[in-house]
Specification:
The complex is a heterodimer of chains A (about 270) and B (about 575).
Chain A lengths: L1 H26 L9 H11 L3 E2 L2 H22 L4 H20 L4 H32 L4 H4 L10 H15 L10 H4 L9 H24 L5 H21 L5 H25 L1
Chain B lengths: L1 H20 L3 H24 L4 E3 L3 H25 L2 H19 L9 E3 L1 H26 L5 H23 L3 H19 L5 H32 L4 H7 L6 H13 L6 H6 L5 H10 L4 H13 L3 H21 L5 H20 L6 H30 L10 H4 L1 H15 L4 H17 L5 H26 L14 H20 L4 H20 L4 E2 L22 H24 L1
The chains are: A mainly alpha (about 270), B mainly alpha (about 575).
Amino acid sequence: MSLLLTLLAPIFATLLYGFERVLKAKMQRRVGPPMLQPFYDMFKLADKRVFIVHSFHAWLGVLHFLLLWLSIGAIMYGVHLLFVIFMHLFALITLVIAGFSVRSVFSHVGANRELIALVVYEPILILIAVSFFLSLGSFEISQILSSDPLIYSMPLGFLALLMIIPIKLKKSPFDSVEAHQEIVGGVEIEYSGLFYEFIYGAKVLEYVFIYAFVFLFGGNNYLLGAILVALSFLVINLVDNSTARVKYQDMSRIVLIGATLLATLNILGVLYV
Amino acid sequence: MNILLVSHFLMPLFAAIWFLFASSKQAKQAGGYLFLFGLSATSLALFATPHDIAIEIGALAKTVLIILDVALLLYFAKVGFQAKMVKIYALALLQLFLYTLIELRLPEGGGAAFVIDDLAKVMFLLINMVGGAIGLFSIRYLEEEKMSPRRKALFQSYLYIFLAVMSLAVSANSLLIFFLCFEITTLFSFLLIGFRKDAQAKHNANRALWMNQIGGVAILLGVIYSIQYYNTLYFSDLLALANPYFMLPFAYIAMAAFVKAASMPFNSWLLGAMVAPTPVSAMLHSATMVKIAPFLILKLSPVIAGTVLGSYITLIGSAVFVVGSFLALSKDFFKEILGLSTIALLGLMIALATIESAQTFFIVTTLMLFHGISKAMLFLSAGILEKEFHYKFVNDFKDLFTRSPLLLTFILFGFASLTLPPFGVFMGKLMAIELLSASILENPLYLIALVFLAVGSTLLVLLYFKVTATLIAKETTNKEKKRLELGFSSPLFFLLFLSFIALFTLGVPLVLVSVVAVVVGAPFIFRQISLSFDRVKEYACGEKIDFVPVLYTFDTTEKQKQRLTKLFIALFVLIPFIGAAS
């Protein structure tokens, strides 16, 4: 089962991404692409002639995808939550190094912003993991999924997580990491064809990663977990459609102070309420 | 057993003599390898011995120690008078006064002068294996240094004497012997920092001297109070007798630890040490000197863990961790970046060492060991950069990707081993998060330490990997590629080997180790596969943009820095009051 889920994760993620594009289009009263559009994109990308800047750069793109997939596999296997978070960090670092390894202004700016975003959301993920531990006495994901729903005891933690989802999924208002109009996609810019496909795949895998985190708040009530995921999905897209991008400095200030405070209060809440 | 012990303690001294007289290159190289493997062998053998070893010394030896102590303090005073620095000689004379006071009211009853316990055995591994690798490295390094052969030999033997003194310091059971070793490490750091003899070196050496003497004063005060409250001079008795109402001696000893760890406000002495030849920095940061701090706190951990003093030390340590990592973000000088991150990580180790748990010992020793290995690797790489490529500032490192991919791999590996799974420092941090989370239930104050830890460790990730921006920026260069010579690369390979081997002691799953092996090895394989792909130039939106890779810096204003310094001075001065109050 875990293996199956892990293997199917990219396909599921791509479907989710396709659905999101449909939903977004509906919100903007556009017709939008068909739901299978991301698959068509991928077939097209696979068909293109392969261009690379240099082999190290191309390899890091592949590695980024593989490590991200590995960390999602770790979630599916129900291992230590902190391990998952740090495997994910490892995956992100490969992307950052890739971004720095080419002579491109946009790629460098993107990689720098990727690092800053990392500093912003990583502590929040850790603090949320700790609050899971404090309420359950374990960091194991399998334990979290067999306990009572946690959303009631730690709503502030859920809010903190909601604050960082836009950063992770590169959604407005916190999408300065990728910012197509100003830095042309950041670290993605130097990838094309087959290797861009890996970056594309990694991007959609992030959806599974972060929404799996949301799902954990449902505990053993999988229906509740699914509802939470659906709700946050909706909220994130609404916010994405209705806000403007903030500068990355403001983003780091807002999230680092706001979400860290929320996550810390959440821990205090778990301890004393 | 005795032969093992004697050879363990005498080997570094023997090495020191060897390098004083070895004149040919071959003899030096042979000595370097020989002592690295010899020291590794004896420390591994000692590590494998199951029980503690106690050693007593006779009356004659005690007299010799007194003479050494007095001579050392008088020498410090003399240095102070020569340099006309009040701070140095006043502190030296103050120590002399306190020392006389102690000798006059020495408590009855003896004890073992040295006890080699589990902690000392782990420290031996760190000191001798990492220190030995640095010793080997410095042979090749010194060939590039402009110095007379006489001074080179002296430098090399200082390094080995330093190792011997460190081995003694970590096995000392008598507080006075520990004090003597503490002061000798101060002496050698003073000599080594000032080794280049220019104005800057002298200035920084003097600063290191007076700052470290504050630590000496703190230890002596600790001894005085331990005589007053517990009537003993020995760690073992102190730990056995300790009473939570008389924490003052421990508070003073902890102050000494903060000084040695170069925690804020004392960070300037360790950062000043980088004017010295790079093996000195490598030595001070990884295997010796600063590691006394977490060692000392860990040694006292059974009595201070769980007390008010203990939680206070945890708070200061974790604050140092965050502030140190943050300050490093604004630096451009490679060694300074590494130095501040050392200070930060030492703060973390100190913070963790005072938490009451069965795991504390394992976590802190893991952090110490792996931090030592990684930092030694990074500093040795910094030494190679300086001598072979003439790079000191991170913003200059622009063609390393093409000039020496191997050295780049070492540096990246060093960064990764400090931040990413599955390496030791990372594992230490992971366990630290677990430990702190479990401790929050008993003492909510640890929540602050936990937040500091979470924020600080991501700041370190940002720090290390922003440096890669210029490190791997592929500059088209016409300078030729350089092969690393064996004299430079063999200590690095040794450390790389150590960090992989030591993983198994942590029980890291083999899957993760192999993942990392793939990550490290695959680019070279992939290069062959990708030969058939077409290459393309980077995209620039059709504009002509001159590309200059630079680092993002995150500057702090002078005012903020002063405020931070004041805050840390206040925190530091409060330690004995907290100790007295608890």
